[in-house]
Design brief:
By secondary structure, this protein is of the alpha/beta class. Helices cover 30% and strands 15% of the residues. Helix 3 runs parallel beside helix 4. Bound molecules: NADP nicotinamide-adenine-dinucleotide phosphate (NAP).
Length: 300
Amino acid sequence: MPRWPETRTRIGRSRPQQTDDPFGYDAPMTTARPLVILGSGYTGPWIYTLALQQSLPILASSRAPDRHLHDVDPSRRIRFDLGEPSTWSALPPDADLIWTFPATPLEQIQAFAQHRCHPPGRLVVLGSTSAYDKEGAPVDDLPPWIDEAQPINNKLPRVQGEEYLRTHHGAMILRVAGIYGPNRNPVEWIRQGRVGPTKKFVNLIHVEDLAHLCLLALQRGQAGETYNVSDGHPRRWADICAEVSGRWGVVSPRQADRNESGKRIRNHKILTHLGYTLRHPEFYHALQSIEADRQPPIRL
Ligand SMILES: NC(=O)c1ccc[n+]([C@@H]2O[C@H](COP(=O)([O-])OP(=O)(O)OC[C@H]3O[C@@H](n4cnc5c(N)ncnc54)[C@H](OP(=O)(O)O)[C@@H]3O)[C@@H](O)[C@H]2O)c1
């Protein structure tokens, strides 16, 4: 399965947004500081491809660059492993960083950040909306909307790491909803029975929108802020399953056996602060195009 978005990807050149910001989105960064994507899993390559299209001084890191950074020019590859301090010096000093893996464990985060995360370098950390999960929370049929002012669960190790980076190093924390896109296809999740027609609410974001928002947060976000990242349309899995069954005849083998309410995530803050319009606001349109491009399974 390809890790990197193809060059014919639908990541389009972004249009400047009408905002009070003196720098249009397509304006170059105000400094020539390099930008490093820490981690090359699913989202990292999308950010990298978009940054190349914007002519940003982009570098990509991986713990295994020979295996995971095939599509990156060798001059832009970095071997970086948070768990191996000897690799930390491979990052250019003062680089801007976009951190795409869970910020744990705390001691390692602290040691790395004290070593590497100093102004003027800016730091965007991908967190998760699971930060809002509470043990023993009541199961509501219609859970309340959650914005960035809601309390978070500081017992979660990744939340501790994120909060340390935010409060001590000015990191911007993006609390990200479920990421979907090409090769991360909710129709497949239903087909495989990973999800079923429960009443649980799910919040989703297309990986292309997430990639745009990561770069915009670096350019326009406020240090030390948190931003929810979601398409703003929480949906019940039961409703998604019904729509997917109607459109593609795909039915989950899983029963509606779980009693969870999920969350409803507000995305107003990030869209207004960063002046961004979602490229994939219509979930079923996005699914349609992901399904159309899906590679059929190989039959032996
Ligand atoms: N998937 C979702 O639906 C979802 C939802 C909410 C939040 N998030 C969060 O959003 C972020 C991006 O998600 P994603 O799905 O793109 O993540 P991903 O596919 O797991 O990619 C993260 C990459 O980071 C690198 N990495 C992992 N541990 C590392 C370490 N200790 N040191 C250095 N590099 C390390 C790995 O790349 P190499 O193997 O090449 O080193 C890994 O593939 C993650 O923090 C994730 O937890 C994801």
